[in-house]
Amino acid sequence: MNEDSLPEPVFSAVLDELIPARDSSLPGAGALGLGATVESRLGAAVALVASGLAALDALANTRKARDFVDLPREVRVELLREVAASHLGFVENLIVHLYSAYYQHPRVIEAIGLENRPPYPDGYELESGDLGLLDLVRERARLYRDA
Amino acid sequence: MSRRVSDELADVLIIGAGASGAAMAWSLAETRMRIVCLEQGGWMNPAEYPTTRSGWELERFEGAYTLSPNARGRREDYPVNDDDSPIKVSNFNAVGGGTILYAAHFPRLHPSDFRVKTLDGVADDWPIDYATLEPFYDLNARMMGVAGLAGDPAYPPKEPPLPPVPLGKLGETLGRGFNRLGWHWWPSDSAIATRDYEGRAACINLGPCITGCAQGAKGSTDVTYWPVARREGVELRTHCRVREITVNEEGLASGARYVDGNGHEHHQRAEIVILACNGVGTPRLLLNSRSGRFPDGLANSSGLVGRNLMFHPYAMVTGLFDEPLEGYKGPTGCSIISQEFYETDPARGFVRGYSAEMLRGMGPVSTALWGMSSNCLPWGAEHHAAYDELWDRTAGMVAICEDLPEPHNRVTLDPDLVDADGIPAPKIQYQLSENSLRMLDHAVARGSEVLKTAGARETWSEAPLRPAGWHLMGTARMGSDPRSSVVDPVGRAHDVKNLFIADGSVFVTSGGVNPTHTLQAIALYIADHIKKNLENLFD
Ligand SMILES: Cc1cc2nc3c(=O)[nH]c(=O)nc-3n(C[C@H](O)[C@H](O)[C@H](O)COP(=O)(O)OP(=O)(O)OC[C@H]3O[C@@H](n4cnc5c(N)ncnc54)[C@H](O)[C@@H]3O)c2cc1C
Ligand code: SF4
């Protein structure tokens, strides 16, 4: 982590609240290690996110006298919603890049029932389907106009 | 050392190696004339297309394969100022042009599309008709490899050379919806090799054809026309960007001044010059070709170069179903088409009509991003349950609305913006007409109706679709009268008798279907005219 990186462990804790564990076999987005990818994609919005994270920790400390990561889940979500409302763009920017990174992750792709591979070269089987459904259309008078 | 034709006078110079330039080059090749094509882009390598690697899905939205030339910003691209348009230009600049990214949805125009003034009292009739283009549609279908099904009551008889793209579960589900409403639908004509065809491997249903087809099944002209045209002796020179068309003392086109990939300037002389740079690139080049004799740009005595730009406003409706549809499999843009609302019905409150092109579903990332922008994928504890309700349960419709020509919709030169070679870039001014707005509303309502009838529990819509400036037409229209058109009925500029235009710029009206099959048929028809009249072309 370099000096300018988004602060941990609060950043990963926030990612874990945005996309929590799916089940016992698939942890939340922070624990999946997506922080670095998300941060690298934030571009200029990184400052907005950094200030949201700082606000979150400050709120946790003033309101609950604890760091954000030490709070129970329900309280974390409540504070996150509060900061999301006061720091417009904080969560919005995060989720664009988080959703993109998360739904490309091999374990997530398998969890939604796909093989973890790019489409090429194996492709997919696709049934040709029932062309008999077109009988109704065939029975129609022609639609085009003479010109 | 072999001598390039560049050192000599070319018989024919084609500018642009996309859909129309390729068809033109192939057709003229049999004459054994010395044919040179200058293309600002390079050859694409299908092994490098995004679907070959993980992370493929995101590359549709960013980087080298995005739709907008402004976002891509490759050296081969030129910027387009489209700030003054609700629809943004999408294109691709390479051997194959827009067909590298296109969805390969490949319908024809209808007989009525050529006679809109006579039939509906709007715009203008074309100086050619369906029957004129029919043999060239057939020829183009063979060369591009069109998959489809004969017997569609929306068209005069036609026989696609390849079997149709699979309906899959999604196509069947939607087809049943259309049947319940008694509306027309048919498997889409698609420039996709549904079995091995002319050296192209069969489609393996990868899905996202619009980032390039790694399988080579999609009919992009780098794998259809160009290999044959080059074998037949056409010289295709890549990374060569034309700055201007030059003219001689007699007011004939004498060739083109261009910049090669190393920034060196050249002049290619030619007897005949043919423009195939698309509905934005062609007017841009004509307007950049000012001279003492042609102070308002070449071939522009009518003042119509760049005017009457037509895009096809798109409405998009997405439906959410209860059952998985396997929509991430199969060519994204090619499943079924409905032309129930194609021909004019005054009771609808607008003239002309639209095609409804049914789309397949989305991949995992697109599903998440669409869910986010449609406010149906929350973060937090409900995220996974919400995602599971979206994943593989969406199907969409896009309505391709006929755009009528209006002179204020136009391409001009931007006073400041230039490309990497300092050549003035195009600027787009475009507004949606009242007729288009009414048609878009109608399409959204009918799209929601059919998706719900097919089983969608909810629908979302977007109209006009912002990035849908991928059909570029009308900016150098065809006609018999030099005062109201730029080229004559065989594609020759009224003002310059050895200059032809062979791309979508020559469309008089847009119809309500994707234009590539038509613009290639027009290129083949113009080539045919040139071939048949070589002896007395300039008499
Ligand atoms: C995402 C997307 C999806 C699409 N889907 C469909 C579809 O399903 N069905 C359909 O029919 N159409 C579709 N299209 C549109 C289709 O790509 C175009 O209609 C078609 O490519 C236009 O052909 P053209 O020959 O006029 O121009 P293009 O194919 O755009 O070719 C023009 C060529 O000229 C070159 N050029 C321009 N200016 C210069 C210059 N000054 N010097 C040298 N070279 C120059 C360009 O680099 C380009 O390669 C789609 C387009 C996109 C972007
Ligand atoms: S679906 Fe077929 S045509 Fe489209 S990219 Fe895949 S293999 Fe190519």
- The coarse overall form of chain B would be globular
Mean pLDDT of chain A: 94
What Rg of chain B, in angstroms, do the CA atoms define?
Answer: 22 Å
Distinct small-molecule ligands in the complex: flavin-adenine dinucleotide, iron/sulfur cluster
Reading the helices and strands of chain B in chain order gives: EHEHEHHHEHEEEEHEEEHHEEEHEEH
Which CATH top level class of chain B fits?
Answer: Alpha Beta
What is the correct CATH architecture of chain B? 3-Layer(bba) Sandwich
Largest interface: A-B, 48 and 72 residues
Q: Give the strand content of chain A.
A: under 5%
- Count structural domains of chain B: 1
Please give the domain count of chain A.
Answer: 1
| Quaternary structure | heterodimer
User: Count the strands of chain B?
Assistant: 16
Task: Describe, in plain words, how this protein is organized in 3D.
Chain A contains 7 helices and no strands. The longest helix of chain A has 19 residues. Chain A is elongated. Chain A starts with 9 loop residues before the first helix and ends in a 9-residue tail after the last helix. The model of chain A has no long low-confidence stretch (mean pLDDT 94). Chain B has 539 residues and is α/β, with parallel strands linked by helices. Chain B has one domain: 3-Layer(bba) Sandwich (FAD/NAD(P)-binding domain). Helices cover 23% and strands 17% of the residues of chain B. Chain B has 11 helices and 16 strands. In chain B, strands 1, 2, 5, 6, 7, 8 and 16 form a 7-stranded mixed beta sheet that branches. Chain B has a 6-stranded antiparallel beta sheet with strand order 4-10-11-12-9-15, with helices on one face. Chain B is globular. The interface between A and B is large, with 48 and 72 residues. Iron/sulfur cluster binds next to loops of chain B. Flavin-adenine dinucleotide (FAD) binds next to α1, β6, α7 and α11 of chain B.
